[in-house]
TrEMBL record:
GO terms for cellular component: extracellular region. It comes from Canavalia lineata (Beach bean). Keywords: Disulfide bond, Protease inhibitor, Serine protease inhibitor. GO terms for molecular function: serine-type endopeptidase inhibitor activity. The record marks K21, S22, L48, S49 as: Reactive bond for trypsin. It comes from the Eukaryota. Residues 13-67 form the Bowman-Birk serine protease inhibitors family domain. Belongs to the Bowman-Birk serine protease inhibitor family. This is Double-headed proteinase inhibitor, CLTI-I. InterPro entries: Bowman-Birk_prot_inh (IPR035995), Prot_inh_BBI (IPR000877). Residues 1-23 are annotated as: Disordered.
């Protein structure tokens, strides 16, 4: 039973995070995911497209770690 695989894909992570220079910083992830947001997202907005493109619009004072785990494309 590999139920852990599903939770892995919904773990909070962000490849493109934008933060203000204020103290504390205000950060927002601008990643787009298909059909859902990560598990820790409180406010998820989805476009009315098929498949739906969703973005978490939470504001935090940190960035989640990157979702991409060394794809091997970069030299």
């Amino acid at each position: 039973d590999h139920s852990d695989d599903e939770s892995e894909s919904s773990k909070p992570c962000c490849d493109e995070c934008k933060c203000t220079k204020s103290e504390p910083p205000q950060c927002q992830c601008v990643d787009t995911r298909l059909e859902s947001c990560h598990s820790a997202c409180k406010l998820c907005l989805c476009a009315l497209s098929f498949p739906a493109k969703c973005r978490c619009v939470d504001t935090t004072d940190f960035c989640y770690k990157p979702c991409k785990s060394g794809g091997g494309d970069e030299d």
